Amino acid sequence: MIPLPLSLGSSSTIINRFSISSTTSTSIIPMLSLRFIRTSLLLSPNLLPSCSSSSPTLLPLSCKFRSTMSYSTPASSSNLVFRQLFEKESSTYTYLLADASHPDKPALLIDPVDKMVDRDISLIQELGLKLIYAMNTHVHADHVTGTGLLKKKVPGVKSVISTASGSKADLHVEPGDKIYIGDFFLEVRATPGHTSGCVTYVTGEGSGQPQPRMAFTGDALLIRGCGRTDFQGGSSQQLYNSVHSQIFTLPKDTLLYPAHDYRGFTVTTVGEEMQYNPRLTKDEDTFKSIMENLKLAYPKMIDIAVPANMVCGLQDVEAKAS
Ligand SMILES: N[C@@H](CCC(=O)N[C@@H](CSS)C(=O)NCC(=O)O)C(=O)O
User: Fold this and answer.
1) 182 CB under 6 A from ligand 1?
2) What CATH number did the domain enclosing 120 receive?
3) Residue at 114 is within a domain
């Protein structure tokens, strides 16, 4: 692999871009390497594994933990720190991942919300982390992304979104790209259908990577549900294929973290959704019919959120500059 470092400041983080010849990441040809991460995943308090720790939030680096719950944070992620954060008006989850064992303690946020940016920054500061990336799974229709504000408030932060989203960002990712955060990486999987540019970020496979794996599904797959397909280039056929080919092919114990939940759930697994998802366990025609008959009201914020999110949530700033 020949890294081609981009100029992303003094951080030691790296993104490696590979071209992927199939739907899996087993056959990879390195093409481009961007500076990116080392991670530690922060644990959601309600998902803390059964190991003793002097800290209620950070896992001790040497802790090997055993979950007593069917939902858990990866059992072999001793260097990983992970937090699941909630914004209640749009019922949005933001995820913080960081590597507390790396000297720089680099961190990233997935799907930050503009009005929660100060909370996110304080948490990152309290934990002594360095935010490197503010990433989106897609162009959201129900809230304004926090990526633009994070870029303004935290020097050096780079916004990340898929090329297929058509949205502005510092870095555009494509299927098969690997976003490195220290010893860990997130693999980019294309999961269009809710929007044409949706991606799912999946933790790496192999030794040293979190076990079980974790997938941040955005709105492609929700717990016992899925994203709607009636605007923003949505397609129920595409969504069905995305979930079945890119998410349901992951190991059954893979932990699935959605961008929203409207009923108080926090996490699910591939195995559970393959068994109990009331939409995606059906055949494709039934799925399409379900999606055509959801009769959901348009998101209240759609006319503000979509244009703003096409420019990292900084619509006003962009408009004034032009
Ligand atoms: N009432 C909310 C929007 C609720 C909604 O439409 N959620 C979307 C994801 S955000 S675009 C969705 O796909 N829901 C699927 C479902 O089955 O609920 C608002 O006004 O913002």
Assistant:
1) no
2) 3.60.15.10
3) yes
Token pair in block for residue 88:
């209640």
Give me the domain span that covers residue 164. Answer: 80-297
Evaluate whether 4 touches 32 at the Cβ level (below 8 Å). Answer: yes
Q: Extract the tokens encoding 160.
A: 């990340």
Stated pTM of the model: 0.81
- Among residues 160, 125, 166, which one has the least CA distance to residue 145? 160
Position 305 in a domain:
no
The CB density around residue 128, as the number of other CB atoms within 10 Å, is 11
Ligand 1 atom nearest to 302, measured from its CA: 21
Atom of ligand 1 nearest to the CA of 227: 13
Q: How many domains does the chain have?
A: 1
User: In this structure, is residue 315 part of a structural domain?
Assistant: no
ipTM above 0.95, yes or no: yes
* Cβ of 227 less than 6 Å from ligand 1: yes
Whether 93 maps to a domain, the answer reads yes
- Residue that is written with structure tokens 């420019």 in the block: 311
- Counting Cα atoms < 13 Å in the Cβ hemisphere of 79 gives 17
pLDDT per residue over 183-204, tens digit each?
A: 789 999 999 999 999 999 999 9
Tokens describing residue 183: 């010893």
Rounded to the nearest angstrom, the distance between the alpha carbon of 141 and the centre of ligand 1 is 8
Residue from 245, 253, 246, 287 nearest 270 by CA = 253
